[in-house]
Amino acid sequence: MLFIYRSLNLTRGGVMAVKIIIDRKVKKGKESDFSELLRELRSKAIASKGYTSGETLRALADPQNYIVIGTWQSVDDWKNWEKNPERKKVQAKIEELMARPTKTKIYVYT
User: Fold this and answer.
1) Coil vs helix vs strand at 72
2) Contact yes or no for 20/80 (Cβ under 8 A)
């Protein structure tokens, strides 16, 4: 499963974009519920300031493992989205479907 939204814009006023890598392990049998919530979350993110693109990858060897790669114009834009009440509400529902806690890391271009 691969979703890509919006065209990639690597800079905003000379500030490089950031990549957010979100690693999730879904409980077996909950993949459909997870995919629905992920689409809801993505539709809300698209409308958020600084969102550039996002893609979702599913591991071939471990189909319950998903990686979401989001591109944001700045760390501040990501942090604002991360604490958005709408995001938190959907994220809480997603966490109920996880076999382990979600892992999130922020990466910058070098």
Assistant:
1) strand
2) no
pLDDT by 10s per residue, the chain, length 110: 433 333 344 444 456 799 999 999 999 999 999 999 999 999 999 999 999 999 999 999 999 999 999 999 999 999 999 999 999 999 999 999 999 999 999 999 88
Fold topology of 11-108 = Alpha-Beta Plaits (3.30.70)
| Gyration radius from the chain CA atoms | 14
Sign of CA dihedral 5, 11, 12, 18: positive
DSSP-based three-state secondary structure for 2: coil
Both structure tokens of 95: 């966490």
Which residues, listed in sequence order, are joined to residue 55 by a DSSP beta bridge? 69
The answer to whether 106 and 78 are in contact (CB under 8 A) is yes
